[in-house]
Amino acid sequence: MRMSQLSAAIALAMAFTATARSANAAPDTPADLSPDGAARTTIDSKVTPLGKVEVKATEHDFRADTSSIGGKVPTALRDIPQSITVIDRSLLEAQGATSFQDALRNVPGITIGGAEGGQIGNNINLRGFTARTDIYLDGFRDRGQYYRDTFNLDAIEVLKGPSSMLFGRGSTGGVINQTSKQPFVGTLDQITATIGTGERYRISGDFNHSISDTAAARVNVFGQDIHSDRDVMTSRDAGIAPTLRFGIGTPTEITLSALLQRNHDMPDYGLPPLNGQPAPVDRRNFYGLTDDRTNQDVDVVSVLVEYKFSDQFSLRNQVQYSHYTIDARETAPNTVVTADGITLNRTTGNYTTDPIESLLVQLASHDRDITDTSFYNQTDFVGKFSTGSVAHTLIAGAELGRDTYTNQSYSRSGLPLVSLIDPEYFTSSANIVTTATNRASGHADTYAVFANDTIKFDPHWQAVVGLRRDRYSAELTNTTSSPPSADQTIEFTSVRGGLIYQPTEAQSYYVSYGNSFNPSLEALTVSNGTQALPPEKNRSYEIGAKWNALGNTLDVTAALFQIEKTDARTQLSPGVYSLDGNVRVRGFELGATGRINEHWQLFGGYTRLNAEIVRALDGTQGNVPANTPRNSATIWTNFTITPEWDIGGGATYLSSRFANNSNTVSAGGYARIDATIAWHQPKYDVRLNLLNLTDRTYFDSLIPSDGGRAVPGIGRTALVSVNYRF
Q: In CA terms, which of 148, 380, 578, 686 is 20 to 30 Å from 115?
């Protein structure tokens, strides 16, 4: 993004602040402090005037009590019969995590996929299955292929296990919901500036002001110029997220929000494999052209209307329009070639006895222009009532949506051969010729009705039952790929069931079952031979426990689960597929979040995945699915030394994992250690974050295409952040 655009975004936020200060003559309503240090409105029918809210530098809990992801309305975590991880704003700030990818490192069982084929942006694997189209923003599918930032997020919620009953198609391994910051009646003006080693610069602002005693406006803004210790890699991004909220604390509440983000990034396809491992070269090596780019424009607009008939009944309707455009000119390491001109077999790991100094890499293009839009309307009715001695919380509603997608791909010829161990860096030249190739165009319509009932039999027993009926109709056309067109209409019934036993307030035990479906045209992009196949089907079984320990200050969770994808797509021959595959993931996880004592906070978890391609016709039967480590763990702890000083640190661990389903290329396991120290004052905070403290070489994300590439993670990095409150 040009700096002029960033300046304009920041100027707009500053202008909003100045205008709101002059207009903010109305008294404010009572508020409590939200996890990000801002005031959060207490929803009450009675509004009492109060002066300006003073935001102090206090440490907030990593622990969340409720989540909306497991039931569409705020629900106590102990009353949701599935595993849930909530990454709170305070944890992100303690870690210096500003990207969606960095935030999700806190969730064991999640791994990162890199850019490949028609998929770029955040590519996430959850419990061994892709969640690329299972990312949500305030409960709506955020299907755009872009690199998300946390500047406007209060929390990230991860619900694990198939959840089509709640969210429709997809959600094999689970779903990820981004919860936006909301306006509150009160005042908050703060700016955070960060500077880091390796030329890393970032500034963000959060401005909230009352419009009246029942209305408020909030604007979040950010801009960054991030360089990496990987050669050539830069990210220049900026965004602004304005939100207006009316009727706070009244029966009718209206929220208008928008997210406008612009990314200008260098694509990173990592290192090619050699002898079954990522090539043992300098992690700074870059294999591409220096004028490569991934430009992404994101525009999301939402209107939410909530009407509360009484304390027992309410109606909510939300409309969201999203528009994403991507201009990608990306070059990647493709084949490895010997000095004699022999191309190594990348599908088996590029094995050779030739000295690495003599090997060359043929670069290849991954270019496309993508336009992706969606328009969704969702209506929810929430009712609380009793039938005799049995209490019910019923959520019923309907969803209508339309997605459109175009992907114009290009091919470049004349790309150079470069040294594997010491690649030269080139810009585009007249010898490189670009040719338009396939143009895929598609659209899909979604119609769904659903109902979910939480049934409380007595103080100790409750059940959750849900049903959803989806009709998904999609069409796809290609200009050069075969087949030239495809269409399908799918009707699918998703179910959800759970039984919860709570012998005391501090204990909750559950069993649950859920299913989901994956249409072959779900991504609306070309995938030769799979377009007209019926959907894949998924089912999940889970048994777990949730305990409140240490006087209700620490949440401890444990779960055993199995997810099985039946009718999985499997390749019979080039371009020919059938639904004769089966993929199964069995595992267990442990988690702990909260306070050990008044001064000591903890956030951590461990997940073990036993994943297997049970049945396949492409030679991968019996293998482990790509990018699915057997063991993963994360821990972060903060200790308050005095009211002014706190220190913290943690580690992320992944065991080795394969870069492709053929299991011919693997990346070794690693543990990355981070640390922080912070100084708090009434008007400002200063924080130092040290990332990858030991400067460990590790591979952050894996790319299954072209034999399996691996992207190195960040080296040792220091970040200094100053957060100033006006």
A: 578
**Single-letter amino acid, residue 437:** T
Q: What percentage of the chain's residues is helix, strand, coil (to nearest 5)?
A: 5, 55, 35
What's the pLDDT tens digit per position in 220-279?
999 999 998 889 999 999 999 999 999 999 999 999 999 999 999 999 999 999 999 999
The Cα–Cα gap between 568 and 517 comes to 10
Q: What is the mean pLDDT of residues 705-726?
A: 93
CA distances in angstroms from 360 to 232, 351, 705, listed in the order given: 20, 14, 19
CA distance 71 to 80: 8
Q: Give residue 526's pLDDT.
A: 63
Strand order from edge to edge, sheet including 417-419: 331-337, 360-365, 417-419
Which residue is associated with the tokens 């995938």? 527
Reading phi first (left if > 0) and then psi (alpha if -120 to 50, else beta), residue 5 is in alpha
Q: How far apart are CA 488 and CA 533, in angstroms?
A: 8
Residue 77 token pair: 């975590």
The two tokens of residue 163 are: 């959840």
Tokens found for residue 324? 């994403």
Compute the half-sphere exposure of residue 362: CA atoms within 13 Å on the CB side of its CA. Answer: 16
User: Cα(122)–Cα(127) distance, rounded to whole angstroms?
Assistant: 16
CA dihedral 473, 479, 482, 487 (to 10 degrees): 10
**Are 531 and 446 in contact, with CB atoms under 8 Å apart?**
no
Lowest mean pLDDT among 44-53, 132-141, 471-480, 547-556: 44-53
Secondary structure element (H or E) that encloses residue 227, with its range: strand 215-227
Neighbouring residues of 453: CB distance < 8 A, sequence distance ≥ 6: 392, 393, 394, 395, 464, 465, 466
Rounded CA-CA distance 279/548 in Å is 47
Closest to 552 (Cα-Cα) out of 510, 589, 595, 590: 595
Average pLDDT of 311-337?
95
DSSP letters for 303-337: EEEEEESSSSEEEEEEEEEEEEEEEEE-EEEEEEE
Q: What is the pLDDT of residue 49?
A: 34
User: Pairing mode, if any, of strands 293-308 and 360-365?
Assistant: unpaired
Answer whether the bond into residue 483 is a cis peptide, omega within 30°: yes
The H or E element that residue 4 is part of is helix 3-23
pLDDT higher than 60, residue 590: yes
3-state DSSP call for residue 13? Answer: helix
Residue with the bigger pLDDT between 537 and 120: it is 537
Length of the chain: 726
pLDDT above 70: percentage of residues in the chain: 90
SS3 357: helix
Question: Taking Cα atoms as reference points, which of 211, 207, 203, 205 lies closest to residue 189?
Answer: 207
Give the closest residue to 694 by CA, choosing from 637, 645, 652. Answer: 652
What would the mean pLDDT of 191-202 be, rounded to a whole number? 96
Burial 66-85 (b: 16+ CB within 10 A, else e): ebebbbbbebebbbbbbbbb
Band (11; pLDDT cuts 50, 70, 90): very low
Q: Report the Cα 325 to chain-centroid distance in Å.
A: 19
> Angle 94-268-159 (CA atoms, 0-180°, nearest 5)?
50
The residue among 519, 534, 518, 437 whose CA lies nearest residue 478 is 437
Alpha helix segments (H runs only) across 389-526: none
CA dist list (Å): 342 to 11, 24, 516: 57, 72, 46
- The rounded mean pLDDT for the chain is 89
Q: What is the pLDDT of residues 653-693, one digit of tens each?
A: 999 999 999 999 999 999 999 999 999 999 999 999 999 99
* Residue 115 binned pLDDT confidence (cut-offs 50, 70, 90): low
Q: Is 27 exposed, middle or buried (0-12, 13-18, 19+ CB in 10 A)?
A: middle
What pLDDT sits at residue 47? 35
